[in-house]
């Protein structure tokens, strides 16, 4: 940042463009904020650094964690603001000012209702997807997470081509999309799963117009559906979004942020924003240097599943103005597998809880409940990581029975995709390690054989008794969501006893980082001394997460990004 900008001496003339509210980024939080501000009479502009809009929000599951939402009421699932607050206070353990939690609980349902009533947002209740800590005080066995219904991409016209594609792990055969509810139905093989499979296949292949254009599914679900619905709402209002326009420097006048300098296809432009600038530019997960500086080590940018455009720019711009930062050593963690030839890591969401697999460290020892929320897995990896007992990376071990029945990373169950049918490139890269003995597998992975044999023997005993005496896998209702209900007495435990044995490397990955600029309950960025930087706002992953070090349930990242955007638009542009 140049000295004249920092000292507030910048010229008040010479602006290339002027708006009421400038929003940096184009994820769900950014777009929703643009809609709210526009509807309150503001002239709004969104700028996006990359050539695609949607950010990680478009790549995501698209779920929103909204306690006490109207869909719960409609489905007869009881919830109250008090219960939600009790839950949030319990799981955040004093790390988040109560005022922020109170505002979230009050405003999130209102935000959801607004976008549904006044826009194209159509969400459905995830009635069996539990809060991540359903047994905690105020926790719920389902309903607080909502996910998008399908959305027809044709409603976006050509604009669809400029939306970021879903994460590869969310597509069947790299092509077909389905909702999380549909995916769970198929995975659990609930009655009707065969009919659902053929419905998804025919939906895709019978879209002749779509197939003539390419392989991208136009029946959107998950994050693409969420961003599609929001983008359609934005298009209705003709709110401008400039792609390939990167925010570079904030401009300050008389101590107030009044705009910024952006780089648009190699050209510098100055954009004035009367009501301030909203930073919604994501975290720093794709910035390897920032990861190594702030996150626990070891860490690599290649371990993230999130958007490559999220390189911490907004955090750096805020820091240059003296903003405070928080939670920089934290992320929306999740164990990932790095598949050769794929440009993003895949998160092991389903695999980790299914029976017949374990996670071990380099000594071959288990050190966590593999079925616990993905955020907690990586926290346990780092908490247990020592020079004598490295846990980052860890290793997922499974046997032939698991391989036959369940998916793993890029592979379908062996019953549908046997080993001989695995892609040649992955065989050549020796991505999936395999051996007829546990000793042999340990050798392939470079881990301790005696430790692995002992861990497997102990797990096998737990599986027979249905009780994991070491880490309590399968005891929480959350664990069992991704278990196999046909396996009893514990749907998350089965012995590993059928050769060959398999293993893959598991990294401490993430869905995005959660550290960023410190904000108050109105999303205003504050300095290290707590004073407000006038005219500067931050939402989403460039702000220190309003959920603190925890993850309340599916949708716990995008729900707050959109809700604090709602709060700030109401306050800054008028109710
Ligand atoms: C596979 C996957 C599944 C997930 N599932 C869920 C889920 O179901 N529910 C949930 O709540 N969360 C989920 N997440 C996490 C969630 O997607 C992110 O936490 C969230 O989208 C972050 O929102 P954001 O607005 O901060 O950033 P983003 O949505 O990533 O948007 C930030 C945008 O800012 C742009 N940008 C960066 N720098 C600049 C700059 N200098 N100038 C202009 N633009 C810039 C980026 O290119 C990007 O487009 C998932 C993530 C992944 C990867």
Please estimate the helix content.
25-40%
Q: How many helices does DSSP assign?
A: 19
Weakly predicted, low-confidence segments: 1-11
Give the strand tally.
Answer: 25
Write down the Rg. 24 Å
Distance between the termini: 35 Å
Shape: globular
Major sheet summary line:
6 strands, mixed
The helix/strand class is alpha+beta
Write the layout of secondary structure elements.
Layout: H1 3-6, E1 17-19, E2 21-24, H2 28-39, E3 44-47, H3 55-59, E4 64-65, H4 70-75, H5 81-92, H6 98-118, E5 123-125, E6 145-148, E7 151-152, E8 171-172, E9 176-177, H7 180-187, H8 193-205, H9 208-213, E10 219-220, H10 222-236, E11 241-242, E12 245-253, E13 256-264, E14 267-273, E15 277-279, H11 288-294, H12 313-319, E16 325-326, E17 331-337, E18 346-347, E19 357-360, H13 374-383, E20 394-398, H14 400-405, H15 424-428, E21 433-435, H16 438-445, H17 449-465, H18 477-481, E22 501-513, E23 516-517, E24 524-526, E25 532-538, H19 558-573
Parallel strand pairs: 1-14, 2-3, 2-15, 3-11, 15-25
Antiparallel strand pairs: 4-6, 5-6, 7-10, 8-9, 12-13, 13-14, 16-23, 17-18, 17-22, 19-20, 20-22, 21-22, 24-25
């Amino acid at each position: 940042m140049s000295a004249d900008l920092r000292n507030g001496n910048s010229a008040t003339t010479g602006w290339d463009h002027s708006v009421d509210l400038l929003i940096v980024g184009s994820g769900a939080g950014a777009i929703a904020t643009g809609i709210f501000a526009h509807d309150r009479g503001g002239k709004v502009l969104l700028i996006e650094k990359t050539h695609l809009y949607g950010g990680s929000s478009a790549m995501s599951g698209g779920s929103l964690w909204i306690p006490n939402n109207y869909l719960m009421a409609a489905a007869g699932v009881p919830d109250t603001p008090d219960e939600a607050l009790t839950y949030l206070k319990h799981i955040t353990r004093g790390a988040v000012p109560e005022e922020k939690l109170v505002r979230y609980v009050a405003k999130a349902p209102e935000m959801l209702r607004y976008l549904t009533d006044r826009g194209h947002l159509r969400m459905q209740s995830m009635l069996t997807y539990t809060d991540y800590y359903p047994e905690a005080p105020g926790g719920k066995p389902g309903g607080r997470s909502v996910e998008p219904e399908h959305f027809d991409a044709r409603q976006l016209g050509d604009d669809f081509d400029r939306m970021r594609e879903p994460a590869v792990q969310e597509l069947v055969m790299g092509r077909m999309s389905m909702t999380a509810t549909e995916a769970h139905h198929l995975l659990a093989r609930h009655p009707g799963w065969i009919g659902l499979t053929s419905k998804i296949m025919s939906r895709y292949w019978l879209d002749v117009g779509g197939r003539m254009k390419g392989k991208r599914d136009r029946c959107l679900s998950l994050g693409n559906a969420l961003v599609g619905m929001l983008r359609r709402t934005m298009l209705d209002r003709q709110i401008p979004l400039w792609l390939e326009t990167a925010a570079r420097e904030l401009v300050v006048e008389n101590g107030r942020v009044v705009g910024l300098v952006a780089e648009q296809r190699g050209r510098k432009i100055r954009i004035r924003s009367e009501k301030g600038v909203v930073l919604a530019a994501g975290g720093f997960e794709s910035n390897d240097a920032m990861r190594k500086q702030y996150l626990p080590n070891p860490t690599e940018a290649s371990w993230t599943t999130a958007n490559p455009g999220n390189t911490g720019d907004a955090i750096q711009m805020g820091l240059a103005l003296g903003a405070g930062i928080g939670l920089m050593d934290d992320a929306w963690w999740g164990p990932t597998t790095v598949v050769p030839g794929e440009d993003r890591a895949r998160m092991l969401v389903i695999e980790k809880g299914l029976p017949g697999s374990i996670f071990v460290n380099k000594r071959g020892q288990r050190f966590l409940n593999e079925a616990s929320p993905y955020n907690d897995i990586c926290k346990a990896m780092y908490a247990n990581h020592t020079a004598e007992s490295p846990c980052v990376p860890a290793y997922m071990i499974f046997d032939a029975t698991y391989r036959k029945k369940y998916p793993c990373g890029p592979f379908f169950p062996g019953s549908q995709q046997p080993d001989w049918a695995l892609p040649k490139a992955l065989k050549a890269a020796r991505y999936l390690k395999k051996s007829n003995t546990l000793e042999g597998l340990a050798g392939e992975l470079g881990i301790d054989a005696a430790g692995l044999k002992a861990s497997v023997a102990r797990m096998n005993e737990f599986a027979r008794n249905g009780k994991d005496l070491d880490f309590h896998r399968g005891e929480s209702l959350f664990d069992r969501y991704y278990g196999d209900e046909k396996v009893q007495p514990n749907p998350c435990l089965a012995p590993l006893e059928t050769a060959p044995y398999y293993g893959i490397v598991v990294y401490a990955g993430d869905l995005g980082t959660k550290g960023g600029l410190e904000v108050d309950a109105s999303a205003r960025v504050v300095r290290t001394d707590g004073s407000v930087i006038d005219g500067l706002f931050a939402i989403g992953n460039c702000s220190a997460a309003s959920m603190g070090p925890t993850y309340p349930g599916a949708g716990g990242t995008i729900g707050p990004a959109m809700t604090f955007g709602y709060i700030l638009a109401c306050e800054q542009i008028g109710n």
